[in-house]
Known about the structure:
With 77 residues, this protein is mostly helical.
Amino acid sequence: xxxxxxxxxxxxxxxxxxxxxxxxxxxxxxxxxxxxxxxxxxxxxxxxxxxxxxxxxxxxxxxxxxxxxxxxxxxxx
Length: 77
Protein backbone atom coordinates (compact mmCIF):
# COMPACT_ATOMS: atom_id res chain seq x y z
CA UNK A 1 0.00 0.00 0.00
CA UNK A 2 1.22 3.50 -0.75
CA UNK A 3 2.59 5.33 2.31
CA UNK A 4 0.26 8.29 1.69
CA UNK A 5 -2.77 6.01 1.77
CA UNK A 6 -1.56 4.27 4.92
CA UNK A 7 -1.02 7.63 6.62
CA UNK A 8 -4.50 8.82 5.66
CA UNK A 9 -6.11 5.51 6.63
CA UNK A 10 -4.43 5.73 10.03
CA UNK A 11 -5.82 9.23 10.53
CA UNK A 12 -9.27 7.89 9.64
CA UNK A 13 -8.91 5.02 12.11
CA UNK A 14 -7.72 7.37 14.87
CA UNK A 15 -10.79 9.54 14.38
CA UNK A 16 -13.10 6.53 14.37
CA UNK A 17 -11.53 5.26 17.60
CA UNK A 18 -12.12 8.64 19.29
CA UNK A 19 -15.85 8.19 18.70
CA UNK A 20 -16.08 4.50 19.60
CA UNK A 21 -17.32 4.97 23.17
CA UNK A 22 -20.05 7.39 22.15
CA UNK A 23 -21.08 6.13 18.72
CA UNK A 24 -19.44 2.75 18.16
CA UNK A 25 -20.55 1.16 14.92
CA UNK A 26 -23.93 2.91 14.86
CA UNK A 27 -23.16 4.02 11.31
CA UNK A 28 -23.72 0.43 10.21
CA UNK A 29 -27.42 0.60 11.06
CA UNK A 30 -28.42 4.26 10.95
CA UNK A 31 -30.42 5.70 8.09
CA UNK A 32 -28.37 6.23 4.94
CA UNK A 33 -29.97 9.63 4.45
CA UNK A 34 -28.55 10.62 7.84
CA UNK A 35 -25.06 9.67 6.63
CA UNK A 36 -25.55 11.61 3.40
CA UNK A 37 -26.66 14.70 5.33
CA UNK A 38 -23.69 14.31 7.68
CA UNK A 39 -21.35 14.14 4.69
CA UNK A 40 -22.71 17.45 3.40
CA UNK A 41 -22.24 19.02 6.84
CA UNK A 42 -18.66 17.76 7.03
CA UNK A 43 -17.90 19.28 3.62
CA UNK A 44 -19.39 22.58 4.77
CA UNK A 45 -17.26 22.45 7.93
CA UNK A 46 -14.18 21.94 5.81
CA UNK A 47 -15.06 24.82 3.51
CA UNK A 48 -15.57 27.09 6.53
CA UNK A 49 -12.34 26.11 8.28
CA UNK A 50 -10.01 24.64 5.65
CA UNK A 51 -8.82 22.40 8.50
CA UNK A 52 -7.27 19.17 7.23
CA UNK A 53 -8.91 17.28 10.11
CA UNK A 54 -12.23 17.91 8.40
CA UNK A 55 -10.92 16.03 5.36
CA UNK A 56 -10.53 12.97 7.55
CA UNK A 57 -14.13 13.37 8.72
CA UNK A 58 -15.25 13.62 5.09
CA UNK A 59 -13.29 10.49 4.22
CA UNK A 60 -14.83 8.61 7.12
CA UNK A 61 -18.31 9.60 6.02
CA UNK A 62 -17.48 8.44 2.49
CA UNK A 63 -16.17 5.14 3.87
CA UNK A 64 -19.36 4.63 5.85
CA UNK A 65 -21.58 5.38 2.88
CA UNK A 66 -19.47 3.24 0.55
CA UNK A 67 -19.73 0.25 2.87
CA UNK A 68 -23.43 0.74 3.56
CA UNK A 69 -24.18 0.95 -0.18
CA UNK A 70 -21.98 -2.10 -0.79
CA UNK A 71 -23.90 -4.00 1.89
CA UNK A 72 -27.17 -3.09 0.21
CA UNK A 73 -25.91 -4.32 -3.14
CA UNK A 74 -24.49 -7.57 -1.74
CA UNK A 75 -27.62 -8.33 0.28
CA UNK A 76 -29.78 -7.98 -2.83
CA UNK A 77 -27.82 -10.63 -4.72
